[in-house]
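pls design
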């Protein structure tokens, strides 16, 4: 019941924010913005989505190799690609696919694999938090609510690292925390470092999509604002970051569309955001279909007795 209520609330937030964004922009303005995109937009974004995929797979490969079990980079590429398709059907299934794979192929207990996925996801959010904090230092116009969220995240992070250092027995005795305590603070930092290429290419992807639609965002400002936007997007209050991401981009970036009216600037930013997300989903779905045809991924769909 709580999961169902959570999904309903997430969809309510998503639809509410999208309504808020679209009510100040007319459909002809959005169509015009899409029509003004540079001719190289789609090919460039496809290549960058593939780069994001490689960066993400690299971070997963290193993290699992250090703290769970050795996997070949090819195995990680196939399984990560398959998770894209599975996540379109059900997000939890997509996240659990790699756990299931290492359980079936290496005999890794499910809870240990789950802990490794939590470590991967946690370091991803932690890196965004670090970058978002840098942006906060030089961007005084951030909403007060966002500052509270960031400060709250740091408070929770402080508690988490204290527990890593103290290693209380009532937590270390639980298998789900095995990987996290085994990694320790130094392991978390290593996992954080190998995540940098993924986030870096993701920032280039967003920056390129904005430039393609006429948003003249300087590189220095992109480095400051984009992590804040990503951090808002990953907050678990909307579906796939829809609504929160677009609202944040419009809030921060409207002034970077020279010569455009406020409504036209919003249309350009909205077109860049939705267009890049559509390209990403299309490429990820194609990768997922291709990877699911691989024997490694087909094993994920077989009963345990026949795999």
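designed seq:
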């Amino acid at each position: 019941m709580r999961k169902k209520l959570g999904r309903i609330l997430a969809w309510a937030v998503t639809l509410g924010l999208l309504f808020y964004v679209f009510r100040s922009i007319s459909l002809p303005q959005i169509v015009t913005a899409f029509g003004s995109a540079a001719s190289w937009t789609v090919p460039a974004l496809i290549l960058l989505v593939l780069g994001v995929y490689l960066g993400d797979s690299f971070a997963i490969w290193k993290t699992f190799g250090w703290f769970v079990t050795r996997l070949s980079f090819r195995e990680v590429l196939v399984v990560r690609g398959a998770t894209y398709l599975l996540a379109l059907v059900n997000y939890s299934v997509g996240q659990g696919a790699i756990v299931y794979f290492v359980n079936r192929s290496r005999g890794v207990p499910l809870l240990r694999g789950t802990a490794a996925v939590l470590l991967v996801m946690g370091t991803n959010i932690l890196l965004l938090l670090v970058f978002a904090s840098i942006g906060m230092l030089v961007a005084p116009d951030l909403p007060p609510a966002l500052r509270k969220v960031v400060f709250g995240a740091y408070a929770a992070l402080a508690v988490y690292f204290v527990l890593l250092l103290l290693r209380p027995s009532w937590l270390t005795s639980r298998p789900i925390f095995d990987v996290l305590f085994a990694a320790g603070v130094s392991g978390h930092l290593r996992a954080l470092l190998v995540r940098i290429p993924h986030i870096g290419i993701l920032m280039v992807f967003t920056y390129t999509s904005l430039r393609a639609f006429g948003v003249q965002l300087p590189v220095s400002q992109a480095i400051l604002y984009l992590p804040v936007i990503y951090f808002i997007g990953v907050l678990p209050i909307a579906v796939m970051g829809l609504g929160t991401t677009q609202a944040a981009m419009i809030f921060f970036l409207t002034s970077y569309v020279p010569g455009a009216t406020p409504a036209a600037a919003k249309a350009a930013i909205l077109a860049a955001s939705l267009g890049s997300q559509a390209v990403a989903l299309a490429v990820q779905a194609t990768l997922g279909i291709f990877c699911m045809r691989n024997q490694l991924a087909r094993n994920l769909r077989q009963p345990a007795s026949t795999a």
